[in-house]
Records
---
Amino acid sequence: MRPPAAAVPEDRPLLPRLGFWALMAALALAPLLGGTPVGSTYAFAAYGGDTMLGVLRALTLIACLLLLLFSSPSRATPAPGPGMKAAFAAALTLSLARAWVVLSLLVHSAFLTRETLLFAMVPEVLNWFCFALVFGQGPRLTADRRDAVIAAGAVTAGALLVGVVGALEYGGAADRAAHRTVSTFFSPNFTAGFLALTLPVAVALCVGARSLFGVVGSGAAAALGFGVLISTGSRAGIALALLGLVLALALAVVRSVRGKGAAGVRLPWGRVAALAALLLALGFAFRAPLLGRVAAPTAATAPANGAANGGAAAPQEHSGEFRKETWKGSLAMARANPVFGAGPGTFPYTYPRYATVAWTGLAHSSYLQVASEAGFPALILAGAAGLIALLAGLRAALAAPDADEAAASPFLVCGIVGGIAASLGRGFFDSEWSLLGNALPFWALAGMAAAWRAFAPAAAPSSAAAAAAPPPSRAAGRRLGAALAVGLPLVATLLLLSGNTARDAAMVLQQAGKPEEAARAARASLGAWPPDPQLFFLAGQPERAAALEPSGRRVGVVLDDGLGLREALLRLRPVGARGGVPAERRVGESGKGVGQLGDGADRPHRPLAQRRHIPPGRQRPGGVARRLLSLGERPARLQRVGVGLDRLPERFESACGVSGPLPGAGELEVPPPAPAGPPGRRAAGPGATPRATPARRAPPPRASRPAGAPW
């Protein structure tokens, strides 16, 4: 048999193959272009950022569009039975999950008439379009086992890229014990999640490779990837990657025993032993960060990029307890919005109202992230698609390989199942589906696993398949539907990419010390869709930016400009709201972002800003918070308020005309000017003697900040 890299036969048309290779490029470049979340925070990241995310989405959608429009007859015919049913059920459930995410966007944006947080929701919806479309290509990738090998090779090429960049980063670290490798991702935990998914695939390709190039390439990806995995220090990622490798090896042993007859498949134990020794050697060489975390779990181990990253780069002090509290807050957020969630992609802006500890931009769980942003129905549907794919792949891996599998890569499906199992496990500990670099390869491999037994291989298109081909009119209708299904998100992707590019260019000018030029560039791009708050901020319109993004940092800018609290909230009317909204309701809606004024990402000088572990006493919403949010908020929304509200009592009283002690003000812990004693003391219980409310001093005057000044 010729190696998978052999020339494409003449019976394969050019355009479908062009789409196929474009999809392979997207899978290989996913960890390089998609290693950061959405947001202007990552505009200057070494890898990823909104512009690169847009390029990755566009490449994926163009590839799927070409494949859908110009698909050619397959060498395999559909095999009615459990395999085809599993592939159809998985594709259907994931498509329904995507539809539910779109519905959540329409509900929260009032059918795209309300622009508040639209800049965060649109990219997340486009991500789900990419997930569903890539998953739907599973039958095309597995109908020909050579294409399946090439697709797995593209994912392995991404792992090799991550391994090379991570090894160079680890080699240049000054203090390796305190360094956690991030490679092309924004956080070491997501690097570990990607490698946990791809390592079993790389090992399976190496074990079953028929050429020297395949053995060396996949072996290098597996060895370097395992070393970098150890250097991330992610304990859950390492444990789940090992679990995936063990599962893949067990399935390969079973498949080898069952395939000794007709297929003549045997497991090359010599190659397995050599690869295991190489993995152990690289793991031992990259062991310092993991040993550092085990020996000193409270040591600060920030990643190399040092960027704000949703909490993942902060000190690892009590990281387990922090995750548990984050899960509780995320679950409370999901319960408060059970049907449509708080809006896809809006977790960083809506979660602080439910948080009990420091701010984080991700839920530290894929499943809680989906439930809190898009509702429990989206979680059930997406989880069902992943579970069906895992079970279908497991069933295929336990069966004897067919002739095409034996000739191409007999143990590939075993590695795919091991990677999917490890990635699904990682989803309990981090929001793997929130990054394109992690989620795109996962859903591609899941689609391949779901459709692995959906076709019966054949040497050429069968006469029955040719007779069952749809008439030209029906084929034209199907192509038109595919063009609409992929063309609309592609247009939205290009619009979003254009706006992100203009915003990043303005931010570069601002970073270079040219605020006037940055403001001119931002004003020239204010018509971009969806409206970007950072563009309005750079253009000298912080109120508009705060209305589009009602977060603590945006509202804080307006307050810092010298406006009173009530005046500022009245002017921060949510974008897209109709006229005639009562002032109290407008204050309540705009006040959602005020609760984030004390989060650790935006106010580092506040008492609990740099504490990611659980404080001794939980912050409880005091009278200021209740009084503020009672002007328009439902009681369910008052459960979690940012700790920064305890710094606004004087401004709130003067703005709202309240004098004297506020209701429940005794619950607030207002720290003295000089720190005296541990922070976060518990409030007095119901039976305790109420404390006297101390006299509040007038806040010092703040200097007005020039428009367009940096944060």
Note: The two ends are 61 Å apart (CA to CA).
---
Amino acid sequence: MIGNLARKRTNLAALAVLAALIGAMLVALPPARAVGLGDCETSGTTLMGLDDSCSFTENTGEVAGGEDVGDPVSSNPAVASVTSGEITAESYGTATITQDAVVDNPDTENINEALAAISLTVQVRKIEVTKIEFGSFDDNDTASDRSDDTFTADTDNVFAAGANVAVRVTVSYSQADQPRVTVSVPTTGLSLLAISPSGVRGTSQSLVSDATGDPVRDPGMATVKVQGAHTLLTDGAPAGEYTVTATAANGAVISNKATAKLTIGDAGDTVGSATLALGLSEGYGSPDVSTHTAETGTDSQTGSINLEVNVLNGIGNPVNASDVDEIRIVAPFGDVMYSSTGSASDPFAVAMSNSIPGIALAKGRVIVQIASSNDVARTIDVRAIALGSRSGVADTDTVTLTFTGDANSMTVDDATKTLRSVNVERDSSNNLVNDTIMLLVSATDKGGNTANPPSSLSFTISDPDGRTVSSNVIRASQANRGTDGKWRITVTNVSGDSASTALKTGEYTLKATSGSISDSASFTVAGGAMNVSVSASDAAPTAYGTITATASVTDEDGAVAADGTAVQFSSSDDKVLKEVGDTSAKNTKDGSVSQQFAVVGAGTALIIANVGNVSDVAVIESTAGGTAAADSEAMMAGTECLTNLAAFTSWQCEEGVNVSEIFAELSGRGATAIHLWNTTRWVRYAVVDGVEIVGSNDFLIKQGDTLYISN
């Protein structure tokens, strides 16, 4: 009896201790407190949390008219109040604090007291969990330094049952207090391991954790990554997908729930496959893809070429860095460097013995940079071998790189566009913009390999008369490589800003020279439009549809007008032809431009093309929807004798006609029947599908008869 009682007391004590330990993980949240943020932002928005405050210097003095300057005013006092140069956050939202400008008082001795108007914007925001990540970190013995662990995010969030998973939570907040983060997991299979006291499991864990770096308030809310504080245990968890939730709090202010999913199953922790491909020569670290320049596989003997190694795990997802021991680069006579991201903040490091540590992988990828040893022109065959830390070896295909010598020959292609004789384009400030064209340039070395063009070219430009043109008139640039990897020389009209300084029109020659190598190309300078001709794809359409009008524009010498010459199309009769699509002026390319028209009816219409004061027309005879109403046909049909072609009408001609003789013409205009008033009743004539209907009467129409045409 006593023994049983002792055992019960022992069990109760153990339960009490366990309850106390779990309760320690869910300590009461501290109350929110006001935080002074210092000076308010003057050139942007001050981000604040509830009860935060910032300060500014109020204007003092007189406004225009002599009155004292008024107090600062908040556009939304419910969001932000202002008192004695201090703005306080009252509720969530945005507010602007303004105060009038102060003018200079001329009666004050040589002191300029003028002050600009004050306008300050504040935004009061709620704490927010922006990301939940799963991965691993280097374990430390104590909780105090867990926030400094090196966290490695998993690439696919798939883990084998029994793995300990690190959880990192990113929080944006606006108060200076560091946030309290609460992580919760499903009760089936998963649990969280408490840091203090050690060894206690639960499905929810709440604690204040140090930031991994100093919070940065500009340009957004202060952001911290809470890591090393939450360890997720998966032993015994059934295979499947699990949802983990996290919230963050500043005192009584709690964020909305954020969620992330992880999968328990085959984690594919072996190295499954690897690929090697050309990377970017420029643009790593930039989200703007327009700045990305792809490698071509060729560079000068003193240059370097970037490659990308991608390693996948056994289930086809990017491998985790911890699952790769090393990546060996096979590149005979090549110098090897590597970077995880290729950005300026992640400089390339030398791959000792051509070996790259697996930890360099970022989401399964590492960037490898190859240069030719001793700057010798050669080709280098490169491949990569990924070695798994647990198991698996993957070998890539070979990529051949070419490091070329100095250019031994050069080719400059003729221009494909024309250069305007007079600059006409203007920028947003209405300043004239010099017209330009580009000439492709390529080069090869002594071995016939593609080489970079010489970096220092001299140019001679000759006009149509063979006279040399000054670089103050037409200027040629050094060859530059575009984002497509091709090299181009830019030719610019630098003097033709008016008719008096217009370039002579005709064919010019550009000669590019570097030492003993040179090549020549031609380009055309085109003047303003002097002639325009317009044609149509179908001048006599018989059915509804579209036709295409094309205008060809030439200058006074008969050469195609400069690209970008504006042509305005129009139709003389919208009931016959109507422009479709974009009806604004179109710019020529290679001297021509087109516009589509819809054929909407029968008749004659003109397609008109205008270029400044020059124009041309194309005549369109349409019979779509019926026969064009030629006068002779109208006379034969007799419809000219009717006072109206719909509803009530009267026959005005002396000569009579049977109603069937005019019905075909009227039915083509939408008539369904013709009625005659014979002084006692209406007599009807109607035809359906070419057959006169029952009760119809092909009556004779005489002068003065009253008719009714049904539509």
Note: The radius of gyration is 41 Å.
---
Amino acid sequence: MSGERQNSDSPTVSAATIIAAEQPNQIPPHSQAKCRQKSLQVATGFRVARRDARKPTSSQSTTDAAIAIGYRSLSPKGAPTASNPGAANTPAIRPTAPLHAVSNSRNDSRAIAPAMLGTIRAANGPNVRIRLRYQRGPSMSGADVTPGPRSPGMPEGSGAIDADRPDGDRGGSEGAYESTTMTAYDVDRNRVWHHAPEALPHDGGGISDMAVVALAGAVVLAVWSSSLAIGLVLGAAAVCVLGAAGCRWRPIVVLVVLLVAGGAVRSDHAWNGLAADRLGAYVGWARLVDDPKPFPSSTRVVFDIEGERFELWSRGRAQQQRIDGWRGGDVVAVSGDREPLDTERARRVASQHVVGEFILDWAGDIRDGSPVDRASNQVRSTIERGASWMPVPYGPLFRGLVIGDDRDQPAAMIDRFRASGLSHLTAVSGQNVSFLLAACGPILVRLRPRSRWVVTVALISWFVALTRFEPSILRAGAMAVLSATAYMNGRERSPVRLLSLAVLALVIIDPLLVWSVGFWLSVGATAGVCAVGPVIARRLERIGVLAVPLGITLGAQVGVALPSLLVFGRLPLVSIPANLLAVPVAGAVMLYGMPAALIAGMVPIAAPVVMLPALLGTKWVDAVAVIGARVEPEPPWVWIGWAIVLIALMVIVAVSSRSGKNRGRHDDPSSDR
């Protein structure tokens, strides 16, 4: 009796062991569990186990716990549930059969052709990284195990699994799973069909995301410098960064040097191309590059004449009325003089490839442009007809939200959107592209992968042409094409990586984009949303549902802070609440507005009904801009406000981090974590 009492009081003997010794094939009911206890310690352990089974704590309500419950049908011992609390007293779950195991009947002749390029097939099995991930099992599925002796002919890092050794370098769910796999399938322990390599290759050819970011930064700096010598130095620095990141593959090193040096050469060639080759009188056809841009006292038009771009400033009222009917892509018969630009003006319009000014004498006939230009102009005209039902201030704003057409917006509206930090809503970007693809999603999902990719790229290209190839939409379109390509190939790419690749490709193709303010505002906002926004949102989990939108808004403000301060000299404080209130509604207008405007333009009688939701959303966005412009403080109060926001954010982050550490310290995690 004394020996039995001593064993029951010993902390090294679990309650499940005592019960298993008394009734090996039966778990006692709730009442019997209480009466059979021989010490207060064991009784308390049973009560805690039942409580955790019925009401798990935050640390126990994890994905691994949910996965463990999935083993209930495969394990005779089950898993802790509210209907079976006694299962919580069993030892760690060790399934009798694995959820996934390597098949011994794999044959290339019976391999199933993949449904999507880049996916696995029966002949090659899953990727090493994916295989190891899904063959581990849950983290609570067994005790520690260690790799056993390596048989002859097996590479280092692999070996037999010895489940009898409780302590070792390899343990937890991975070792327990491999042990049960070999036992269930009667596999020789000295023969490992799929051994794990010592170091898994990085997804992406060994180049990390930060290395791609560094490469894009080196190319941008080389393009900005326009110097081959600086480009070679930056290329060597990029090679060193890649080497430090573990990438020493010779073709990649050569490609990095070529990209950086080639960017510098391309930039120098682009700047030399800004000098006009032919000046003087001209009579002939000129193609409009973009829609005419009205200003308070003039209208600006950019012509493409014999492969060179010239800007026209029309200041006469009669001439302005005639020019207002022109559209991008139209071909116009003109007569006038081509003159060079002064140095300051040439730098300001360099990103638009404008080489001179055109002094118009007269304009004659108009011809339609290319088929793409005609299709884009027809869609824009249909949307304009559909939006004409709206009152004057809101129709142009609606067109700006949907397709970035801000030609007819009043100057007061433009000023209040800038003052409230909402001017980005009228510049088409990735949000517009996302909503376009979402609207076409029901059609795209019915296509085969290759056809889906072709249609997706065609849609993106058409939308880029529809919005007149603005720098922001070029960035968004490039990222969307890269994302669609990665999806078709079965590859996952982080947004930061996609952004870096898009910037790298665009500045190589068009080096003058480096001098575009709109391009850097778009890149900065995207980088802030993708890299900074999620980090802030995780730190702000204590504020509930506002954590994600507030984190994204603050991330975007961090991204655009530098270009906004350098170019405009201001960073609106009211942009934080203004974006929280306006962006969701503006997104709904973008998603609903394009199909609604097309229907209203083709069926004018239905315009009042179809366009009413879009009108209400547009009014809401404008009302937020009006209030934001009125309450925006003047310097230095705006900087004091930003300091308060920064201090409050730091306090919230510190409290959140401290709370997370306390939860991790005091909660009762699983024993095998």
Note: The radius of gyration is 33 Å.
---
Amino acid sequence: MNIRTKEITVKTILAVKALIVILLMPGASLVAQENTIRISDGREATPGALPEPPADALGYPDRSADLDVLPGFFKPPRGYGQVPFFWWPGDQLTRERLSWQLGLLEEAGIQGMTVSYNHSHFLADPELNKDFIGPHGRTHAGDPPVFSDEWWDIWKWFSAETGKRNMGLGLKDYTFNFSGYWHDEVRALPEFNSYRGQLDIRKVAELQPGEPFERTIGPDSTFAVIAYPVINDKIDVADAVDLFEYEDDGRISWAAPAGSHWQVFESVTTTSEAYMLHPDHGKEHCNHYFQRFEDRMDDEGRKGMNYFLQDELGSPAYLVGPGTWSEDFPVQFKDRKGYDIRPYLPALTVDIGPVTSKVRLDYMDVVMDLAEERFYKPIFDWRWERGLIYGVDNWGRGLNPTAYGDYFRVTRWFTAPGNDAPGRGESFIQTKVSSSVAHLYERPRVWLEAFHSIGWDTSPDELTGQIDRHYLFGGNFFNLHGLYYTLHGGWWEWAPPCFHFRMPYWPHFKYLLEYTERLSYLLSQGRHIADVALIYPVAPGQVNPDYTPDIAFDAGKKLFNAGVDFTFMDYQSLARAEVRDGNLHVAGSSYPVLILADLPAIRFNTLTQALLHFRSGGIVLALGGLPNASDRLGSDDPEVDKIVKELFGVTATEISAGHIAVPQRNSTGGLGLYVSDTA
């Protein structure tokens, strides 16, 4: 049990002083919608807002406070054993060979497999990749070709065989993300192929007073043409002119008024790979992918269905960012943010003054709302309602907080947030981000994709070191990258080695797998306890594309290396945290210390929660850049400065002017500290 006092103790104060030492070690007419801004606190993604998963779901932990873990540690229930990637290309699939291999795997305690296919190479397979453009070649389809009728017969039979053994069988979509298969099927649907879900915002003219402007517009593609007077080198949204009012029969004719020079911006919608926010995207993805597996199998085959993985989702349709759009976006934005986005669209590409950061944060919030509601959540619901483990290893792997728009918000829609772990070295930040998502949104597991390309000479003691390290970082679902159906006489391998029955240590390997099974069980139960919440820095990158999260990640490394555990906390988890007794209470855990690491742009409710925490006796530490912009008014907001001043004794502007911050204390025992130099 972890017992906490209800007040900031001397011990905690001393610990915070130690933290500081650790972190200093080298190593328009727009009205501020300040309290009408609709900002989700992420509650819709927590178990309380979701249906109960099936009682017999494998590998779903027990979070009861009175759980006795000892029996499960001695003999873990099903669902905590190793689940490797099972590479099927290289030779013809036969039932005889698969049956023999399944017997070996069952005997070693392996509890499932995620079938995988490798991609081809442009130079080695020129015919296969003729006229194809992508980051790598097309899928090597295997024999029989993946998703052919003969392949489905094998899959149906093999899934039933795994189900008889209380094992699972899934697929990872690694090479299927870029060409062919369900993505192309969804793309080809008429309502998706013609969907105008990308917005190109461009400056098309600079005009002197009195200068005429003529432009032909596309009846379907041109969304807005707006002229702005330029004042102090910034466009003035308050006096913008909607040039659609000067359109006649598809052509705009207008002359710039006297008094200043003008800039004209045009926003055009496009249809190429532009359906991410289509209202039925997630539903159709399930229909063409997951539902097909369920439909192609009988009851026996469905018993083995589990352990699917989304791997490196990289098709342009999914890479959310400035310009991501939906046909109903203006209505959705007005409903959620309370103002018309159209005159503010240039702010997504150029600096239009203090309001720029507000517009960018509001825009990305609505984009992510729609991406979750229309794509990620329907897919999650399909898996969650069936009690299945659905893992993820996406681009960025947590190192880029704005990957897919907001990496944290996307990753919470998997039952097993996860990441790649290298054969050598470590993926500390990546695994910490994955485990933090799982902790804060109470997801069953943290998928550790381990350890590709480590080489054939790897010994069990090397594996044990890598396992221990990454389980310490938060992993608890063990997925070895290499299990090969064949070596094809030594001519086939992929990111070697195959860690299984081809290795000389195989007769003893089951004992290592029993060790990882006990660890997986033990470290999945209950709730994670840490004293420090370190804000995951998404907002600064949504405002400034050149922002890097180095200060936050470096702070996390220093804390952990000094023996201080922490959780990366997203702004929505902080927003729903109950603030009392000097602690932030969320997802069954409590945090006396909140760190704002280099957040020049910040969600306003992050600041207000930090202030409440400070006033309730909590500790707030800031590193690097202090907040000077938010989604309340943008930058130069006196309310932001007022809160920052109360917390840290200085504002961002004062720090730039050379002022020195001093610790701030209040009558409740709250402590506010600012550390500018983290080098």
Note: Residues 71 and 77 are 9 Å apart (CA to CA).
